[in-house]
Amino acid sequence: MSANRTRTAGAGPEPHGEARLRDAFDAARRRTLALTDCLDDAELCAQHSRLMSPLVWDLAHVGNLEEIYLVRGVGGLPGVRPDLDGLYDAFEHPRAVRVELPLLRPAEAREYIAEVRARSMAVLADTAAVDDPLPRDGSVFAFVAQHEAQHAETMLATHQLRQGLPVLTATAPPRGEAADPPAEVLVPGGPFTMGTSTDPWALDNERPAHPVDVPAFRLDAAPVTNAAYQAFIDDGGYDDPRWWAPEGWVHRQREGWQAPLSWYRDQGHWWQRRFGGFEPVHGGQPVVHVSWYEADAYARWAGRRLPTEAEWEKAARHDPATGRTLRNPWGAADAHGDRANIGQRHLQPSPVGSHPAGVAPCGAHQMLGDVWEWTASDFTGYPGFRALPDKTYSEVFFGSDYKVLRGGSFATDPMACRATFRNWDLPMRRQIFAGFRTARTADDD
After folding, report:
1. Could you tell me the pLDDT band of residue 5, with boundaries at 50, 70 and 90?
2. The whole model's pTM is what?
């Protein structure tokens, strides 16, 4: 294949110039404060699940990382509170014990992150040359902004696990001019460009771009719905070890899983708890809060499998008509309302077919937004991987312990939602906003 048939179509949005970076930092901070100002100090300091940090830890942690990498790192300035580094080091203190630490109180944490932000924006102003749209160390600024945005999704997951009356409100996702997706789509075989070397917002594990030859396969045209998953439950899928990986069966038995996290049955009907409220399970929405083990078991029960990470990305980005690799399913532009359900606007997935403007060239719907999608792949570095800003962001997680998720969710910030973005988690985790779609090889026809 000639080189021009594997090029990336558009490097993406405007590079990380000063104005764009400031907007990104402002958006992330608004979300951080919205998720913490809605609770009193007692709830902010409480641990709502051993799987999650107290929200007050997240509140100060985002500021501490910003201080380390921008104020002291890029700026070379004296620290605001260097004494906090150990306290808010995610590797030094597991989530389950952070509630026992002498954390900053909420008012102190808010003052701290405000002071850090003032200094880091001064560093950005000094760093951004008037005639250069790409500030020096711009990738580090982009990393820090996305780090806070990612913690907003983590904090929203804590809100979902929190017991108590609702404190968050959002409208239901509009269905708009909904399409009726087919059951599956064909993704032709051949090479495509995976990852990126040019997107200025890409994190280290998305780099570098490299060719991957993917055999033809068929992919669910939309994420697996609640109705489809309920058929797995009704057929005894949770009680049949044939469908489960050995480790998954152990977890299912030990934890007593019988349905996705937050589902419960009442008078013969399935209900779900969502951010403190209760509602019937919507059959047309993508299933959410399932582990990799559950997704894998469903796929086996359905006579299919989870797609590999390369298959998922090819389906989301590759245009078989032109041979070009796009930044997102629709092209170079960022995700927004009519293309994807992202940004915590609706606090629930959209029914399948709700975003026809975001359909990928292969015909797959909702590849970005709504729910993270588990893949079959372990989390590893691409050929030529280089850690940025250091090994602690991605490299320390490489290996067979973690599975890759793709596509973002309704809780993901737009700045961290693109077709190259890679998420990862342990295969038993269910508190994240994760669903899945299944695949099969084209030879199975």
Report:
1. very low
2. 0.94
